[in-house]
């Protein structure tokens, strides 16, 4: 089917309308005339671009079409930022209820900001090992593996490993899952199962060192850490300055991970309590922030309510699913003077912030960052009073 792509929407699609039917189009730039192959298996049709008839001036040679991991790699960087801003605005408009008017009344603009260059910034890359023993990634939208010897989004140290796989012969086997890590505080490592290598045949401990904003963390190589090399300092700056942290403040932190926020918080606040559900992350956080009171727990609305009691500042960095309406309501109803919500999904953010506004909170700032260049993802930091 030939059609014209409209504006972008959540999930990496543009919207097209043909004979009254809405079609989600993958691989098109807004305004382009394209030919698509239609998937009619679901009620909402989806189309994948097979040919570009009239290209957008924003279309460029794809930075990484060898495999998945760069859904927007066919757009120039400025167009990617405009795409993500439009998706964020759409989420706020459709799911945010009073949030859109609230932001307008407060004079707060919605804009996704660029953070550093689009290539060579990714400090972690998870790959599979194919039947030939080569490191590989899945082709986009497929279970098929494609062997790779470079990945332009990854840090140079990771590409050095990809390009010298023969030197690592015997380190991994077909079917293994391998993580390549380029920590900011030490040299690169390769993680295979429970083993971590600094060089072929040279094992080291399970943790790597990350540094940002004058602090150092030890993080399990297979655990969670922000992938963009500038993400830690960007998020620390947005959160700690946003809540206007004072030395006398008591802080409640939820979904604290390995202690990205926890460590600086213990240096800059009176007392810090942190909750995290993953055992390995809790062990890392206890090592990184020994002054904090850290608890391993499943984070529920009731825990958010009880944990935020007596806190002057609340910080929450949930998974892509967000806090949920009940969780957001629990935090909004606390006595905290400031709440920082770090969201990696614009739809979840809009829903959660809406619930907070409807429970009496006001947005002081909303900052969105492109910490996942060439992909559809973004990070949003919302500060509420």
Describe the 3D structure.
It is a single chain. The protein has 385 residues and is an alpha+beta fold. The chain has 9 helices and 23 strands. The protein has helices at 77-95, 99-105, 156-162, 231-242, 262-268, 279-288, 301-307, 324-332, 346-358; strands at 2-4, 8-9, 13-18, 21-26, 33-39, 45-54, 112-114, 124-129, 135-138, 145-147, 177-181, 189-192, 195-199, 202-204, 207-212, 215-220, 250-254, 271-276, 293-296, 313-316, 338-343, 363-370, 379-384. The strands form 4 sheets. The protein has an 8-stranded mixed sheet with strand order 7-22-23-21-20-17-18-19, sandwiched between helices. It has a 7-stranded antiparallel sheet with strand order 10-9-8-11-12-13-14, with helices on one face. Strands 1-5-6-4-3-2 form a 6-stranded mixed sheet. A hairpin with a 5-residue loop joins strand 8 and strand 9 (135-138). Helix 1 (77-95) packs parallel to helix 9. The N and C termini lie far apart (50 Å).
The helix-and-strand class reads alpha+beta
| Beta strand % | 25-35%
- In the predicted model, the low-confidence regions spanning at least 5 consecutive residues are none
Strand order of the largest sheet: 7-22-23-21-20-17-18-19
Oligomerization: single chain
Gyration radius (Cα, Å) is: 22 Å
Q: Name the average pLDDT.
A: 97
Describe the structure concisely.
The termini are far apart. The model has no long low-confidence stretch (mean pLDDT 97). This protein has nine helices and 23 strands.
């Amino acid at each position: 089917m030939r059609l014209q792509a409209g504006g972008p929407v959540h999930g990496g699609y543009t919207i097209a309308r043909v004979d009254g039917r809405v079609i989600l189009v993958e691989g098109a730039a807004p305004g382009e005339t394209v030919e698509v192959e239609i998937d009619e298996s679901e009620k909402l049709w989806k189309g994948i671009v097979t040919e570009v008839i009239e290209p957008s001036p924003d279309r460029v040679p794809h930075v990484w079409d060898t495999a998945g991991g760069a859904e927007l790699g066919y757009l120039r960087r400025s167009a990617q930022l405009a795409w993500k801003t439009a998706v964020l605005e759409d989420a706020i408009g459709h799911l945010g209820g009073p949030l859109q008017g609230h932001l307008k009344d407060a004079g707060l603009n919605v804009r996704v900001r660029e953070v550093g260059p689009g290539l060579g910034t990714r400090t972690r890359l998870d790959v599979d090992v194919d039947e030939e023993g080569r490191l590989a990634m899945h082709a986009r939208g497929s279970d098929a593996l494609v062997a790779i010897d470079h990945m332009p989004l990854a840090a140079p140290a990771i590409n050095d490993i990809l390009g010298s796989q023969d030197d690592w012969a015997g380190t991994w086997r077909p079917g293994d899952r391998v993580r390549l890590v380029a920590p900011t505080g030490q040299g690169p490592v390769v993680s295979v199962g429970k083993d971590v290598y600094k060089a072929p045949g040279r094992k080291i401990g399970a943790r790597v060192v990350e540094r940002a904003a004058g602090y150092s963390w030890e993080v399990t190589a297979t655990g969670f850490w922000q992938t963009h090399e500038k993400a830690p300092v960007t998020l620390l700056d947005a959160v700690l300055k946003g809540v206007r942290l004072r030395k006398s403040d008591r802080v409640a932190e939820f979904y604290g991970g390995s202690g990205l926020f926890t460590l600086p918080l213990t240096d800059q606040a009176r007392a810090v309590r942190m909750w995290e559900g993953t055992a390995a992350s809790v062990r890392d956080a206890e090592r990184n922030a020994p002054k904090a009171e850290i608890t391993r727990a499943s984070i529920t609305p009731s825990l958010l309510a009880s944990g935020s009691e007596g806190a002057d500042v609340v910080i929450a960095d949930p998974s892509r699913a967000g806090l949920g309406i009940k969780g957001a309501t629990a935090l909004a109803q606390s006595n905290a003077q400031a709440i920082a919500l770090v969201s990696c999904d614009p739809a979840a953010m809009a829903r959660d912030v809406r619930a907070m506004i409807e429970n009496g909170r006001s947005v002081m700032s909303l900052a969105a960052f492109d910490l996942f260049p060439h992909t559809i993802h973004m990070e949003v930091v919302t500060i509420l009073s």
